Amino acid sequence: MIWRSCFLGLSEFDAVIHFAGLKAVAESVEYPRRYFDNNLIGTINLYKVMAKYNCKKMVFSSSATVYGQPEKIPCVEDFELKAMNPYGRTKLFLEAISRDIQKAEPEWRIILLRYFNPVGAHESGKLGEDPKGIPNNLMPYIQQVAVGRLPELKVYGHDYPTKDGSAIRDYIHVMDLADGHIAALRKLFTREEIGCVAYNLGTGRGTSVLEMVAAFEKASGKKIPIKLCPRRPGDATAVYASTDKAAKELNWKAKYGIEEMCRDQWKWASNNPWGYKSKP
């Protein structure tokens, strides 16, 4: 949250950045009610609290999953939206709820940021992702294999109609993603006529799972053993972003490529092989 004043115990909030939510595709297929309860009801309650305190500026973490399996790529913000799994549908529903709220109460300013695949870590190596249990996302999984916490990387889907058979995604460095939020906040406070608008945050380039594995091996000097597994339900073949709208209207563009993403992820992993915990 962004707040303006905290004087004598009184806080006045200017805007909210809403990151909270469950985010694993496979888990959402298995436990859809958990996702509807947490993501949908939690956000509806947040809107109620914001309205109560007259805080009507929101940056919402949406997702590229709202595009489902697009008929063509790159994904443009005005594409038809058709999520393929319960997680994606929670983001799709919440985008619709946001538009309905803003339409009914025009003083709201809401920016929907459709993340593609955030990866990497802070370049210092001191701040990174530390998921509990078996990671649901590719890069934390790769890093845990690289430091010896897991024996191999399971690659879900090796028969997709892509150049190497693995799925293609648009990976974006977390620091580029952070800059995207700053750009969105700046727009909320400098433009009156915003309404409810969506922007893609990605690099505009597609990278396959196996290409990312090779890039991480190069950055780390480690061989990543892989196990080829069947496709997971709810996964799309290839999804990557058109970033023209964000460049034009937010003055934002990703600066980092997969080499820097893997470099910084490995720096975090090698400095913190057990994450924020000591070795058990």
TrEMBL record:
CDD domains: UDP_G4E_1_SDR_e. Pfam families: GDP_Man_Dehyd. InterPro entries: NAD(P)-bd_dom (IPR016040), NAD(P)-bd_dom_sf (IPR036291), UDP_G4E (IPR005886). It is an enzyme of class 5 (isomerase). GO terms for molecular function: UDP-glucose 4-epimerase activity. Transmembrane segments: none annotated. Its EC number is 5.1.3.-. Residues 12-264 form the NAD(P)-binding domain. Keywords: Carbohydrate metabolism, Galactose metabolism, Isomerase, NAD. Its cofactor is NAD(+). Pathway: Carbohydrate metabolism; galactose metabolism. GO terms for biological process: galactose metabolic process. It catalyses: UDP-alpha-D-glucose = UDP-alpha-D-galactose. Belongs to the NAD(P)-dependent epimerase/dehydratase family. This is UDP-glucose 4-epimerase. It comes from Manihot esculenta.
